[in-house]
Amino acid sequence: MLFARPEDRTNRRIAALVRREASGTLSSRTRLAHRIRVDADPALGIEGEWRSPRGRLLELDVRTSGPGGWCALHMRFSGGLLKEAGFLGLMCSGVAPEITRARACLRSGTREGFVDRFFDKHLLLRPEIGSHMDAVALGDRSDAPADPPWREVILFFPTRPFRATLLDFRVFTA
Q1: What does the buried/exposed string (b/e) look like for 118-153 if buried means 16 or more CB atoms within 10 Å of the residue's CB?
Q2: Which of 136, 142, 83, 157 is nearest to 110 (CA)?
Q3: Does the pTM exceed 0.85?
Q4: Which domain of life is it from (predicted)?
Q5: What is the number of domains present in the chain?
């Protein structure tokens, strides 16, 4: 059984970004929309541009000038909204001029900071438009606590220069 309510706010934020046109330059912390941002290790020296043309979620043109540990798209939502759900899933479609691998993660807030639960499948962006779907169980392990104060779905991208387009992205619960 799919529940529409818990993920509605997150999907509405994503849909709003798809419906409007926006763009900007990238830095180690770049806000794209309310509760949606790109974060990168400052040591990476990230530069580049992001665009959200009407009808597409996000185009990234990332350049780096040093070694770094992460470059990621964060989509944050309230952790308590998923109390009744057994699974959190994601669906997305995208494309990239060169094969680009990304890794999805569910990050949950804790008193000490956060814990990460990585999705099993890697997202593969390639020159042909492709789709991806994956899900993680909630509350059954210490890396996916049942009632955290907040959660984020994160897409970790390469820490080297890349270009990629996310056409659409949705989260769902079951």
Answers
A1: bbeeebebeeeeeebebbbebeeeeebbeebebbbb
A2: 142
A3: yes
A4: Bacteria
A5: 1
